[in-house]
């Protein structure tokens, strides 16, 4: 073996290469560097996309909501009897139960940690929604200045604006009162903080209720528009040129419509559950999962948009 401080002669190395080929170390080093650079590049791209996603209010809400709901799911899973039984089986299989008897006799803290993370994300969302009345004002203002052509859509949209204002205003008052920013005497005089939250959810449910009619009306109008286009007397060449563009626009329109329908359908029973004092029987350990399902499509679309920037 050569002395580490004195590398072997080049001629010896050349003879060695002739007999056994390239050294695994010399051959593997460039490949390792390429893999490292590829990993760093992929990490850089992911961080840039995440930064772009968090640079918008909608992106922040989607990320925080995902953290909130996923942490809630993990909290209930880690605290369930089935998970604890599974952990015990793993300890038995690993034959370390005797070494960790004193530890396993205590409740596992993992569930409480996930619950704390879920609570933190939820409270952050409450804080950010304190400014939620501003975009609602803009939505109502733009609707009044540029009303939809269809009078039914226009009326439904204004009802949704009013419902959302009720939801956000009541939630803001209840949240600020719970933090002692606003006097609790006024809130307690009209039912207490919990009652204000319930009525806030009822305002949100009003938005969901009217959204079903909006989607129904959009479906009717789209069918009429497509029927009118098929009957329109245009030349075959123009028809072929327009067909590709309109086909893609129609695909995106239908996809957006279906996305709203799925989101609304998933939220409706959960919001109704929160609207009632006794609920409708949805288990608490499923609320995080249902909420995550409602927002999963939106998160996927927001993340996909960052790749186009």
Automatic annotation (TrEMBL):
It comes from the Eukaryota. GO terms for biological process: peroxisome fission. Pfam families: PEX11 (PF05648). Its main location: membrane. The keyword Zinc-finger does not apply. GO terms for cellular component: peroxisomal membrane. The keyword Membrane applies. Keywords: Membrane, Peroxisome, Peroxisome biogenesis. InterPro entries: PEX11 (IPR008733). It is found in: Peroxisome membrane. This is Peroxin 11C. It comes from Penicillium brasilianum.
């Amino acid at each position: 073996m050569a002395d580490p401080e004195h590398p072997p002669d080049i001629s010896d190395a050349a003879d060695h290469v002739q007999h056994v080929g390239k050294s695994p170390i010399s051959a593997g080093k460039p490949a390792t560097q390429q893999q490292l650079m590829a990993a760093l590049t992929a990490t850089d791209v992911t961080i840039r996309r995440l930064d772009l996603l968090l640079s918008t209010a909608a992106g922040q809400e989607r990320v925080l909501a995902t953290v909130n709901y996923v942490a809630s799911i993990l909290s209930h899973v880690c605290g369930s009897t089935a998970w604890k039984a599974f952990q015990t089986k793993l300890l038995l299989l690993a034959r370390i139960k005797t070494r960790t008897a004193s530890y396993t006799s205590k409740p596992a803290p993992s569930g409480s940690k996930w619950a704390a993370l879920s609570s933190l994300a939820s409270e952050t969302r409450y804080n950010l929604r304190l400014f939620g009345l501003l975009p609602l004002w803009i939505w109502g203002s733009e609707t009044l200045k540029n009303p939809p052509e269809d009078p039914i859509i226009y009326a439904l949209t204004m009802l949704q604006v009013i419902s959302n204002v009720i939801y956000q205003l009541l939630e803001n008052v209840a949240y600020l009162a719970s933090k002692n920013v606003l006097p609790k005497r006024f809130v307690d005089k009209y039912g207490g903080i919990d009652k204000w939250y319930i009525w806030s959810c009822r305002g949100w449910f009003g938005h969901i209720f009217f959204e079903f009619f909006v989607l129904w009306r959009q479906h009717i109008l789209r069918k009429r528009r497509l029927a009118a286009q098929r009957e329109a007397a245009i030349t075959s060449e123009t028809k072929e040129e327009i067909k590709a563009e309109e086909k893609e626009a129609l695909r995106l329109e239908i996809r957006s419509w279906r996305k709203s329908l799925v989101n609304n359908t998933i939220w409706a029973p959960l919001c109704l559950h929160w609207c009632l004092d006794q609920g409708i029987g949805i288990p608490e350990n499923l609320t995080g999962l249902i909420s995550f399902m409602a927002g999963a499509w939106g998160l996927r679309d927001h993340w996909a948009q960052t790749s186009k920037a």
